[in-house]
Design goal:
2 copies of one chain form a homodimer. By secondary structure, the first copy, chain A, is α/β, with parallel strands linked by helices. Chain A folds into 2 domains: 154 residues, Isopropylmalate Dehydrogenase (3-Layer(aba) Sandwich); 132 residues, Isopropylmalate Dehydrogenase (3-Layer(aba) Sandwich), CATH 3.40.718.10. In chain A, strands 3-2-1-4-11-10-5-6-9-7-8 form an 11-stranded mixed beta sheet, with helices on both faces. Chain A starts with a strand and ends in a 9-residue tail after the last helix. The interface between A and B is large, with 38 and 38 residues. Chains A, B: Pathway: Lipid metabolism; phospholipid metabolism. Chains A, B: Catalyzes the reversible formation of acyl-phosphate (acyl-PO(4)) from acyl-[acyl-carrier-protein] (acyl-ACP). This enzyme utilizes acyl-ACP as fatty acyl donor, but not acyl-CoA. Chains A, B: It catalyses: a fatty acyl-[ACP] + phosphate = an acyl phosphate + holo-[ACP].
């Protein structure tokens, strides 16, 4: 099993990526790590942190895609960047997964175009973990990859989210809900109204109906489906909530669970290989969690289970 | 100045409505109150709480619209309900404002059909107060009246919200933003992309660009505009946050500000007369704040300023 890691992505690269690798290996992680990045910067750090040479292969990538570069253009123009090379290795079977805390847009563009969607998948999607007030976790998707959605897409997100919740989050029979304004069938905007009957008829999911904004943080549903516009706003609101409680020194276990570093990153669902996108501010722990997630995604074969063929 | 009050609306009616009136009068409130409700229930309570007969007129309404009744049907069939009579009094100039903590849908239907939109207003809207982390407050709209919106509607919401923020919230030059996913012009879903240039060209507002989900609770904008689907989900999420922090005994001044009872109710913007809709769980303080808000809306003439004519 080979996991590709972009060593140049994120605000604290490559140091925090190296720390994450250190944590991963210390925890008994056994996947071979294929690292892309500037050799002159990365190798001394790996050695300094005692990463054994047998644990990794370092592939030199002389270019870096900046956090604020235009994704499509950057990927096209910087073929020797750590992200472009990382995707190339994944697409050609040299690695089994790829993760990065770098330019999110470039990671999404790479996922969509360097790889390919699974058979029958209309649009890949990204999700986020939502910490529920009772200690459990839910999955919300889409959170920004698809800002305008069709009902058929939401129906597929429900199925992909359900597979992910079962296989990766370990929820045996995930309760799938449509995020909506109003509880009854027939409520909501045109998209929600048209999506409801599709979800109801979907044999691959356990659909429980609508949930509202007030249910997002409660243990009502395990998988919540919405368009990427709505989902992204909820995701960023939740992230800011964590920041605010920290600034105000509101220390409580519940808000600590809004620390997205705990979850390590966002997988792209519905594509041929596992790709995990980390937050720009990822530290060692986040990298460690991203590697662990990628590993689990590989050995469970979760992506292949999402094929609609 | 005459303020109409539905005495039968809300989970704790009519007792908490009476308490709210008591608080209002104790605070020196001088508007004449026109109360609609079941005389046999309401009059003894008014007397028991020492509300002077000179302060109010009680209009008997033998019917009640339940919290879960179908709004349009209920309003049509229950012409003798406290809400239907309340709207009739308002529409015929017997009162200058109307407020209720009853069936939200019926209050909205009444606002749209018993009253009329202001000249040039495509669609009335409802808003909510968002408590910012620095102690200030922002206005978010629409929060559920218009689940599917057109760019021209969002543009009008921006103007109406701006008038409301200036006139009622006392913000001299409200910063108006488009709630979006991404900071730059051109980002977002199709609705946001088409709305941005309209807001930019709107001479009646001080448009500052996009804000993201992470900015909602920060002091970035005074007025945030979005479709009613997105807004309603944010509103209900914020409400649930207050509930969760209470349940978990996370006591902090910041979360106390998410107690929507403090804000007393939601005004319907863009119609001919002030209408304030309270939460079903409104207690005395909420009713008091609703009456005070209605009074301020009358004497500032805020609704007339929203005319697009």
């Amino acid at each position: 099993m080979k996991i590709g890691i972009d060593m140049m992505g994120g605000d604290f690269a490559p140091l925090e990526a190296v720390k994450g690798i250190q944590q991963y290996l210390a925890g008994g992680g056994a996947a071979h790590l294929v690292l892309t990045g500037n050799e002159d910067l990365v190798r001394p750090l790996l050695e300094k942190h005692g990463i054994p040479a047998s644990a990794y292969t370092l592939v030199h990538a002389p270019q870096v895609i900046d956090m604020h570069e235009h994704p499509t253009r950057a990927l096209k123009e910087k073929q020797q960047s750590s992200i472009a090379i990382g995707f190339h290795l994944l697409a050609t079977g040299k690695t089994d997964a790829f993760l990065s805390a770098g330019n999110t847009g470039a990671m999404l563009v790479g996922s969509l175009y360097a790889l390919r969607p699974l058979e029958g998948v209309l649009r890949p999607t990204i999700s986020t973990i939502i910490p529920k007030e009772n200690g459990s976790t839910g999955l919300l998707l889409d959170v920004g990859l698809n800002s305008d959605c069709k009902p058929e897409q939401l129906n597929q997100f429900a199925r992909m989210g359900s597979v992910y919740a079962r296989t990766i989050l370990g929820i045996e029979k995930p309760r799938v809900a449509l995020l909506n304004i109003g509880e009854e069938e027939g409520k909501g905007n045109l998209l929600a109204q048209a999506t409801y009957p599709l979800l109801k008829a979907n044999e691959h999911i356990h659909f429980i109906g609508n949930v509202e904004g007030r249910d997002v943080l409660l243990d009502k549903a395990d998988v919540m489906v919405c368009d990427g516009f709505t989902g992204n706003i909820i995701l960023k609101l939740a992230e800011s909530l964590y920041e605010i409680t920290r600034q105000k020194h509101i220390d409580h276990e519940y808000f600590e669970r809004f620390n997205f570093e705990n979850y390590g990153g966002t997988p792209v669902l519905g594509i041929s290989h596992p790709v995990v996108i980390g937050h720009g501010i990822s530290r060692g722990t986040a990298f460690h969690n991203m590697i662990t997630l990628a590993q689990k995604m590989i050995y469970t074969g979760v992506m292949q289970q999402m094929s609609m063929g």
